[in-house]
UniProtKB/TrEMBL annotation:
It comes from Zunongwangia atlantica 22II14-10F7. It comes from the Bacteria. This is ER-bound oxygenase mpaB/mpaB'/Rubber oxygenase catalytic domain-containing protein. InterPro entries: MPAB/Lcp_cat_dom (IPR018713). Residues 27-211 form the ER-bound oxygenase mpaB/mpaB'/Rubber oxygenase catalytic domain. GO terms for molecular function: oxidoreductase activity.
Length: 257
């Protein structure tokens, strides 16, 4: 009997999530949005986020990657495990994580999947964007998240609305960016900020007081060239924190399966 996977073998989502480069840009965008979300106190509740912000973000991104490439049954088991982890945190704290906070994280993964691929590779067609949306909609339904849009066009409308309503600059934001700086060091931290400037929607840029254009726009063509000549690993060795190098290399392996 043929194995059923969570995403089709020829899916654009596999192309997006099959390369460490793209995932790192998704990670950078997520790092900015996590810090601004009005529900960020939930991420601080266990104390694990401020202690290891990069590790916590990697685990979120890694969960998404595992689900994208897994067999359908395994993917739904991973989603179920995520539900149990959240339920335990809610039980310990004594109240529920709001539905809109779950939607925010799901929407963030959809948005930055598209933005990262378009920044590094090419523009996606509307059909491909719809495909990205539908894969993550399946994740959202597995997590029993309420009030999800049913197609990409409706998602765009909801995304604009939640960007206006659910984000603010707070003491948590300030602290989290200080933690990023501390864990990355000044040069890598500057690179993170440039990636965020490149990736962030207008509303996120406004809240973080970012300028409009990233200097990475000028560098990306050279990076693409380095990939053609197979010397991009030299750049990665220079810019990646050594504690996460094995994590990042592992991200690159999934596309082949």
């Amino acid at each position: 009997m043929e194995t059923t996977y969570f995403t089709k073998k020829d899916s654009i989502v596999r192309q997006i999530w099959g390369k460490a480069d793209t995932i790192l840009f998704i990670f950078a965008g997520a790092a900015a949005e996590f810090a601004l979300n009005k529900a960020v106190d939930w991420l601080y509740y266990t104390g694990r986020l401020p202690k290891d912000p990069l590790g916590r973000l990697f685990s979120t991104v890694n969960y998404a990657k595992v689900i994208v490439f897994a067999e359908e049954k395994t993917a739904f088991q991973a989603i179920d495990q995520m539900n149990k982890i959240h339920a335990k945190i809610e039980e310990n704290r004594g109240f529920k994580i709001p539905d809109w906070a779950y939607r925010d994280v799901l929407f963030m993964l959809i948005d930055y999947s598209i933005r990262a691929f378009e920044a590094l590779e090419r523009k996606l067609t509307l059909h491909e964007k719809e495909e990205v949306f539908q894969v993550f909609l399946k994740v959202g339904k597995g997590m029993k998240i309420a009030d999800l849009p049913t197609n990409f066009k409706d998602w765009e409308i909801q995304r604009r609305s939640q960007l206006q309503d659910n984000f603010e600059y707070s003491d948590f934001t300030k602290d989290l960016f200080l933690q990023y700086k501390k864990h990355l060091g000044i040069i890598r931290y500057r690179l993170l900020l440039e990636a965020q400037i490149l990736m962030a929607p207008k509303r996120i840029k406004e809240l973080l007081n970012f300028r409009n254009q990233s200097i990475l726009i000028a560098i990306i063509p050279f990076y693409r060239l380095s990939r053609i000549f197979k010397i991009d690993y030299i750049l990665k060795e220079l810019i990646l924190p050594k504690d996460y190098k094995s994590d990042i290399k592992a991200l690159d392996h999934s596309a082949a399966h």
